[in-house]
Every structure is written in C-alpha cells, then in structure tokens.
Specification:
two-stranded antiparallel ribbon; 0% helix; rod-shaped
Length: 220
Amino acid sequence: MKCDIQKTHLCVYSNGLCRTNANCESWQVCDMNQTCRAAPGYCDSDSQCDPVFEYCNPSPHRCGPAPGYCVSDTNCDSWKKCDAISKHCYLISGMCDLDADCDTWQSCEIKTHICKPKTGFCLSDENCVAWAKCDTATKKCVSRQGYCLAQNECNEWEECSSTTHICVARRDRCGTNADCGKWQYCSTSTHDCKAQLGSCDVNSDCVSGEVCNQQTHKCQ
C-alpha cells in the first residue's frame, strides 16, 4: 500500500495491487499474489486471445475480432459482410472503401461507400442527361435517337446544337424548304438554299445591268 498524500492522506492500494476483489476493477479479480488480474471471460492483454483473429478490446476488456476481422456481420462496417471461414470482413457488391474497389468507369463516394459512375459514364439512363441514354456495353452516355452529342453525328450540311443537342441546318444549308428564306428553295442534291425563280440572293442571280436588293431579294 501507499499513502494518498495528494487527496485523502489514507493508505491506499498501489496501482494493480489488492487484498480482495473489491480492491480491483469490476472486470478483475485479486489473485494469491495480491495482484489484480483479468477475471474469467475478460482480458488485459492480446496474448489471452486467439492469436489468429482476436485482440483484447480495451473498452470492455474482452477478447473480440481485431480490426478487419469478424465472427458475424455486426463486427463489420455497414457496407461489409463477414466471411465465416476466413474471419475477414469483405465488401458488399457495389460498395467500396477506395476507387480501386470499383470498376474502372466508377469512383468511390467516400460518404456513402457506394461505387458511382465517373463523369460521362453511367449505370442506367438515370445517370445521363435528358437527351442521352446509357450504353450498357460501354457504360457511357450516348445521344438518343434524334439527338446528337458531337458534330460527327450530324450530316455534312448540319451542325450539333450545343443548346438543344439536335442536328440543325448550317446557315444557308438545308434539309427542307423550311430551313431556307421565303424567297428560296432547298436544293435536294447539294442541300443549299437557292433563290427561287424571280428572286435573288446575289447580283449574279440577276440579268446583266441589274443588282439584287438585299431587303426585298428582287432584282432591280
């Protein structure tokens, strides 16, 4: 024993020493050497546990699975399950700790531990914008029928609108007469807007000595 000079000035048992169980912690017993030891079912060192997958948990002072090991799913994180044979926690399909746990077209969202598509990739149509759909083979968002993502998805006389993602006729080019001015018609062979008979776009559409009025598109 020793004197508690700082507080009570009473003789108290030195740390870890005892006369009865009452002098020890609730998870300890007093042995014949008057030393507090772990009671049956408890531990005070890892050596008292299964060396394969256990350690002495310092909070309850009981042997339990070491970090990363398990005996049931409750010993694992919520996004993992326990392998009863190896005693290891393993990731549930689609869940992750790191990007490396996901497919190459995915990244790990640390907050939810879910593998999610990287920008430009998809798992379903929901991962794509309204004018696109998910190509299940490449896991990429591609334009839907009638829409475009890039210029090469349109005809030579068209361009892909960055606003609507629809192929539209270039200026002075056309697919139908509706793409041209009221004084023009659409040439189906060249997809160019050309002046109708009696109208003009340039002076060369007029007879010698006349010019094309750009307001009325009439030769004068």
